[in-house]
Each structure stands twice: as structure tokens, then as C-alpha cells.
């Protein structure tokens, strides 16, 4: 079994003065949700997600050797402009990963980052953002220690991304990614995401995700606070064991192509996530009236037309509409006719399953 110790870099040479890397990393949408964590970003239950294709963060990491004065040194640019508000999160990330990447104090960094989706869309950029930064850092590690394998490179990138934001570890590599130990998923680990190891049924190839932007405002409660509220939550143990069951069930579904069963698991997971928020102390609600309007419209459309379309939710009000590629025209027409009116400024983003991070050097 791979342990944290395997990700400590022991031998390296500061063989490079300066340079830069550039990677893009996508967002992902969980089917079985991660909600609740232990110390060191260890998930309370395993989760599985579709990797997205169009919603991405593109990050350029420029580095220059400096005297190691025991401090991190970096500048942060968002869309080309200095962004002080993002710095504390990066500082914390560096502190968390320093044990595994001891070279971080030997360089001054410029982190230049941008998203392909509107910043204020309410789409979590932490998954794609942390994944893009983590994989850039691995590119530098590979220069300092060229012996590492491609598998180790990706595994450690996911491991580092997890320390930045849990769900980010599912944004490195693969169409469908599992994070967290699960009895039936070989190679699964609490430490990093792994590609879903079975072969996936045709029905799920190029699965579509249209993200309806219901509310672009700042969330009232951050995911990190929400995760903490699963401590001492009255339904926590039941929820964690349900996630294991749902992951077993969705594994079979992804293999056998049973889209009807897929819909039941995915919608139940989304509503359970929000039920956990509503039953924590303090309790909170992240859905908006239009979130519910959209859910009801989707149910009605599905009943009336027998189209395999369903929804899922993140920790926010936006709705992800999931459907097979074969129903694309029909569902997009339905979205345009009946759902756009519930989106803020009529905004939605068309996405689909993608492959993970891309080196854009
Ligand atoms: C509801 O990964 O954003 O999207 O680890 O505290 O950064 P931190 O939390 P984060 O939580 C995401 C939770 C979720 C479900 C999921 O993506 O599995």
C-alpha cells in the first residue's frame, strides 16, 4: 500500500536556475459526493466524478532560484492582474505540501492563472485551480528528480492537489475518477484519485453536463465549513456507509450501461448532500428557488418524454444537467425552451466528459 511517506522527495539536485511550465486542469462533477473529512484532507467516504472538458483553469508557473531563507516567495496573478485575495490560500497550500516538496523554498514563483469559465459563475474553481498548480509543481519536481515515472508523477500531482482542495485530486487524469478507499475499486486510496479501473459502457461515453448558472453570488457557507459540520452530525455514519453502497452500485451501472439506475443514484446523492447541509448544526440551505424549479422541470420532462436526463448539484445553487450524448439535441432544446429562464442572465455552460490535465508548454 502506498503511504504518505512515498511522496516525500528525499534526493534532488537544484539543477535549474529558472524556467516556466504551463498546464490546464479541468473541473469535475461528483456523482457520489465527498462531504466530510478527517485531518490532513482524508475523506470520510469515497467519491467518484466525471472529469469535465471545457471548464478549466490554465496556470503558468514561472520559477527563479533564490536564496533559501526559510520562507515561501511567490506572486499571484489572476487573468494577468495581481490578486492579493488568493494569496493566503496558496500560502496555506505551500505550507501543507512543503514536507513532500522541500524545494519550494529554493525558488521564487510567479503563478499566473485564468479560468475558461466566468470567475463569478459560482463554479468551484478550487478543484481545477489546485489541480493545475499541483501538476505544475510536479513538472518542477521532475526537473529536479528526473527518475520519477509517469504514474508516480500523476499520483503525486493528485496527492498534492488533494492537500489544496479535496475534490481537486479528481482533476488530474482520467474520464472518471475515484477518490477514497473502496473495497471494490482496485488501487483506490484516500491519498489520491485513481482512474475508474473497469471498462465503461458505451452509454456513458461523451456524457454531457450542461451547467445552469442559477446563482453567481458568493456562497454563504464554504465547502470547508460544510465538511467540518459532518463532525457530530446526527446522520454522519449512515451517510458515509451509504456512499460506499452507492459507489458499489454506480460501479456496476457504469459497467452495464443502466442509465435509469444511474439517474436514481446520482439524483439521490445530490439531494442527500443538500439534506446533510439542512440537517447540520448550524443548518443552512444553498439551493435557491430556481434550483427547485429546474429540478421539477427536469422530472416533468423526463416523465413526459422518457428522456434519460437527470440533475446533480455541487455545494451551491447551480444545477448540472447530465445526459447521454445520444439525447444531446433533444435535451439542449428542452434547456433552451424551459430552463434558461431560471438561469441568472440566461447563462449556462455546455460541457462534457474530458480526460484531465493537459501540458500546454
Ligand atoms: C460538494 O473539495 O471544495 O463538491 O477539501 O475543503 O477544499 P475542500 O472541499 P471541496 O469539496 C467539494 C464538495 C462537493 C462534492 C464533491 O466534489 O465530491
Automatic annotation (TrEMBL):
Pfam families for this protein: MDD_C, MVD-like_N
Family matches, as InterPro entries: GHMP_kinase_C_sf, Mev_decarb, MVD-like_N, Mvd1_C, Ribosomal_Su5_D2-typ_SF, Ribsml_uS5_D2-typ_fold_subgr
Keywords: ATP-binding, Lipid biosynthesis, Lipid metabolism, Lyase, Nucleotide-binding
Mvd1 C-terminal domain ranges (all copies): 211-339
Xref: Gene3D superfamilies: 3.30.230.10, GHMP kinase, C-terminal domain (3.30.70.890)
Source organism, top-level taxon: Bacteria
UniProt keyword ATP-binding present: yes
A molecular function GO annotation: carboxy-lyase activity
Diphosphomevalonate decarboxylase-like N-terminal domain sequence ranges: 25-184
A single BP term in Gene Ontology: isoprenoid biosynthetic process
Record-linked PANTHER family: DIPHOSPHOMEVALONATE DECARBOXYLASE (PTHR10977)
Protein name per its UniProtKB record: Diphosphomevalonate decarboxylase
